[in-house]
Amino acid sequence: MTDILLTGATGFLGRVLARELMAADPDVHVWALVRPAPGCAAADRPELAALAGNPRFHAVAADLGVPGLGSCTHARTHARTHARIGSKRR
Fold first, then answer.
1. Does 75 map to a domain?
2. Which of 7, 9, 45, 61 has the highest CB neighbour number within 10 Å of its CB?
3. Could you count the other beta carbons within 10 Å of the beta carbon of residue 15?
4. What does each C-alpha distance from 15 to 19, 27, 69, 76, 87 come to in angstroms?
5. How far apart, in whole angstroms, are the C-alpha atoms of residue 30 and residue 32?
6. Sheet holding 28-34, edge to edge
């Protein structure tokens, strides 16, 4: 399994990239850092509706402009444990 951390998944290019990454390799899991919208959880953002049904797409509530990404401890621990920047995980 290959985990890919993606930002910008709610934008047009981010959605296309997430879809293409998962289509290109059945072992890819995309972990998208998504800023929650007012009254809407990260995973429930309407922009992600087409991706949300894919079990290999994971929306994680986070905000790059907030210390600690504004995310829960579980999300930060998962990112530290699984993220490999600039290297291929084997």
1. yes
2. 9
3. 19
4. 6, 18, 21, 22, 23
5. 6
6. 2-7, 28-34, 57-61
b/e string for 37-67 if b means 16 or more Cβ within 10 A?
A: eeeeebbebeebeebeeeebbbbbbbeeeee
pLDDT of 7 > 80? The answer is yes
Residue 68 lies in a domain: yes
* Residue 11 included in any domain: yes
For residue 82, pLDDT beyond 70: no
**21 is written with which tokens?**
């990454």
pTM: 0.76
d(CA 71, CA 67): 9
- Identify whether 87 is part of a domain: no
Domain count, the chain: 1
How many whole angstroms separate alpha carbon 7 and alpha carbon 64?
9
Position 80 scores a pLDDT of: 64
